[in-house]
Amino acid sequence: MVKIAVVGVGGRGFHGFAWPLSQRRDVQLVSLVDTNLERAQVAARLIKEKTGLVVSRYGDYRELLKTEVDLVVVTTPDFTHAEIAMATMRAGKDVFVDKPLATNTADCLRIYETMKQTGRRLFLGFNLRYDIVCRRIKEILESGALGRIVNISNADFYEGGKTYMARWNRFYKYSGGLFCHKGCHDLDIMNWYLNMARPLRVAAMAGVDVLRPEELPVAAAEKKIGPYCRVCQVRQFCPDAARVESPLYSEDVARVDAYYPDTCIYLSEKDTHDNGFAMVEYEGGQRVFHWECFFTPVSTRRFTIVGTRGHLDADLAENKIVVYPRWRKDRITYSLMRGEGGHGGADANMLEGLISSLNEPGRFKFTSVEEGIMSVVIAEAAEKSRRQGRIVETKELIDWEVLAR
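The structure assignment produced for this chain is given below.
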């Protein structure tokens, strides 16, 4: 039976992987790793209380690599992905990296070379590829109903995105910027829809326009605001106050590394954007527009795809797709039903695909490393464009022929 360890047991690592893996009988969860060992201990205790399963705990992933484990699931902050993934493969283990592959193109290429040198398998986690609406869109495109795709626009409206400004994600050095950390989902999907056409150039604009001190939604005369919601004296009046109830982020856990995921989203130091646009032009002439906004009260993703034979609109919150054939007045509407689990069932679908790939190699086509690199290239180019105020050619970051060899 395949033995699996999870490195990084914050909210994503625990709820998205450790917890569901602990309940399966076709693989074995054997270890949890977190630089905050107290968090790993808490996660292990929660699993034991609910399932009876006992797992080992480590504060250093390098100790884990000395043990018998077949697959290491990496759900740590993005800037650590390259180091952990490469060390894991060199230790003779397979690895699953939850998106993005890394925070920059150079690290992605180092991972790619390590994978080729070691011959180990690397699985890449883009759960949006397992979303029921996104998969149906792909089927529609593959059917030829829209003809040759010319334009795609996408909007990622995420009310919960404001919480990034309370967590490690708000720092560019940790996340590669929000075009990389969050936008990589959308960029990957649009690359997928374009059958991995090569992106040539990227232009982007972004900024912090709302989640900053002068936009605080509460007055605080003679009251102390922040630095964390749990101690803020005006939290009962603040519409954006976070309620941290998970034992994974209790005071006992926070005392170990002083990490608080309820840092004030307005007063926190940050160098990532709360809204932005990115435009991409591809080798075949296709053009893509991506918009992300993280202070909106709306949470959905919307896609518009226009081809030579039709037009498609989709809304992931409404689970709805509408296709407009170009020369007819027909309207074809798809109303879809979501499954259970995180991200509308996408997490469960992705995990099922991963386990199928482990138990029956070759049966399931997972997102490739080359595909993961492509989304990071675009995201890095977008970050350079918005910070330097210019169009960025992707050839500045990568020789695309490296992936073709």
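Interim note for the steering committee: The radius of gyration is 22 Å. The chain has a mean pLDDT of 95.
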